[in-house]
Amino acid sequence: MQNELLFIIHITMVLLGAVVAGLSGAVALRGLVILYAVFANLFVVKTLAMGPLTACGGGMYMVGVGVGLLLLERYQSPRYATETVRLTIAASLLFCLITGLHLLFVAAPGDFSQISYELLFGRMPRVTIVSLLAHGISQYGTLITYRFLARFFSQRSAHNTALWSGQILDTLLFFTGSFWGIVPQSQIIEMIAISFCVKTSMVVISSIIIAFFEWYRAHRAHLQEQEERLGSHFAHKSEHENSEGL
Amino acid sequence: MINEILFIAEAAALVICARFAVAHSFGASVAWASMQLILANLCIRKTIELFGATATGGEVFIVSSMCTFSLIQDFYGVAAARKTIIYCFFSQVLFALLGYIHGIYIPASGSEEISTALSFVIALAPRLLVASLIAYFVSERIHLFLLQHTGNRFVALFCGQLVDTSIMTFLGLWGTIANPYELILVCMAIKTLMLIAVTPLLVLMRRSLSVSVLPEEDV
User: Which of A104, A142, B9, B58 could form a disulfide with B44 if both were Cys (CB 3.0 to 4.6 A apart)?
Assistant: First the structure.
């Protein structure tokens, strides 16, 4: 039960991070999306016992990336979102290279950490290449699907369908490529199944986040309008008083 | 000798990457600065021999992150650099929290070894976060105090960095390394030498940045 509870807390934190960054502005959200892509590659190596099934530790970050990109696409600009996709790819590659370089450093005599780093970073090139392929294909797929569907359906349903289809593609490509030959095939199927469930529920949550952002923007615009109206009212009043005084 | 060559090559590569990040956008610079500090946390457990003394694998990222902050300050201004520090701090908090959660998950069968390795590597993240926060506040105050009273930039910066390194070593790494005093000396020597070595590259980066077009973004 411990893992299931932790999983829920974990997912909430990832999404909350995206919401807070989104409220802080495009810069913070872009930074967070890039970091989530890096975290996904780092934490994916650990598989978790989820009841009788096996789950993977990196999937929720990819949903975080997806939610962040859609927020950027919708509230900043499509170009900004596409550029952020490119940056996540560059960051993932750099992270892989840097960790590879870290393994090349000759450890000092008495150092006992090298084995841990080899275990953790040793799989990084394979995970990165597979995740880049899966991530690139799925994120572009998400954006293209969203742009296409937004012409025919409401923004919310276009967003949900695009995110969901992108995640299906990502999951299939990623888990098969990353874990084939390392863990039994039954575990890969379990990981894909759990990832589908998690991602589907997160698509629902992300639509709530989008709704919250819509409300927040409308509320802010309303407040600004009120402030402006009050400001012009007082300016008009003082102007009137001045002219009376004169 | 291989470690020294790797170290210099890595530092130069990281500064060049910082230049590209800064030229791209403020968001990319923030992400790059945060990533370097996370890497510094992540790689700190490995000890390596540099110039005949023992150092940690995270030193190079500290030096390159200092260069990144410097480039951000030059290109986007002091306010943006301050904002970057805040964003970096929050990214460190997020990394520490998420890393802690990953550490306490019960691993699936066959993943125990990886789980132990991951827990070992990220175990220090929360402690380092607290240590770096304290070190930053204390060292910044000392730096500013000395700058006001002595007027000597180098002395103020050196003393500030010495206090920062000492606090980080004692609060963040005490008990995990054999000789903390040697590490402080090595860190300070490396920081000073690397900053001197990287400065011409940094000047080159600044010159190349000054002709770049500032991208539209909310800084």
Answer: B58
Provide the whole-model pTM.
0.81
Cβ separation of A46 and B110 shorter than 8 Å? Answer: no
Q: Which positions 151-180 of A are in contact with B (Cβ < 8 Å)? A: none
Q: State the pLDDT confidence band at A244, using cuts at 50, 70 and 90.
A: low
Q: How confident is the model over B133-175, as pLDDT tens digits?
A: 888 778 878 877 887 788 776 777 778 788 888 888 888 888 8
Nearest to A57 among B7, B97, B102 (CB): B102
Distance CA B179, CA A149 (A): 62
Q: With beta carbons under 8 A apart, name residues in chain B contacting A98.
A: 10, 14, 39
**Nearest-CA distance from A210 to chain B in Å?**
21
Candidates B45, B40, B71; CA nearest to B58 is B40
Whether the complex's predicted ipTM is more than 0.85 is answered with no
Alpha-carbon gap, residue A139 to A169, rounded angstroms: 9
pLDDT tens digits for range A203-241: 677 778 778 887 887 888 888 888 888 777 777 766 666
Q: How far apart are CA B205 and CA B81, in angstroms?
A: 17
